[in-house]
Write a structure and sequence with these properties.
Blueprint lengths: L1 E5 L2 E6 L2 E6 L11 E8 L2 E8 L8 E6 L5 E6 L22 H4 L13 H9 L1
């Protein structure tokens, strides 16, 4: 999983696919505005962005199903977010979420509240 940041746009790359997400609207074309962490955690793709100039802000995390790209939730959280379902194992493919479904950081400013049973059901769909 690779990423790059240009202004307010974060671009994720996996294999031959890529997707770009504007962290604010309208996006600024220049500047070093965001720190980014992205990882695949079992069946989930977890993207966390943190404003580079706000050290104490916890950032915003998006969680999506790695196989389908379906966004399960987003919200303010720490970069240490981790969800480990014992009964699920990761698959080999990864599909990036649709940019329109992601929204920007203001769309996801509320606290991230994911319920493990709902996550497991969404992953199995």
């Amino acid at each position: 999983m690779e990423f790059s940041v240009e202004g307010d746009v974060v671009t994720l790359r996996s294999g031959g696919s890529s997707a770009s997400y504007a962290m604010r609207t309208p996006p600024r074309a220049e500047g070093d505005w965001w720190q980014v962490q992205v990882r695949r955690d079992g069946p989930l793709l977890i993207l966390t962005v943190h404003p580079a100039h706000l050290e104490c802000y916890s950032g915003v995390t998006w969680v999506s199903v790695a196989d389908t790209g379906r966004v399960l939730g987003c919200g303010a959280n720490t970069a240490a977010f981790r969800w480990l379902p014992a009964e699920l194992s990761p698959s080999g493919r990864l599909r990036l979420p649709d940019a329109a479904e992601m929204g920007d950081v203001l769309d996801c400013a509320a606290r991230l509240a994911l319920k493990p049973d709902a996550l497991a059901a969404a992953i199995r769909e």
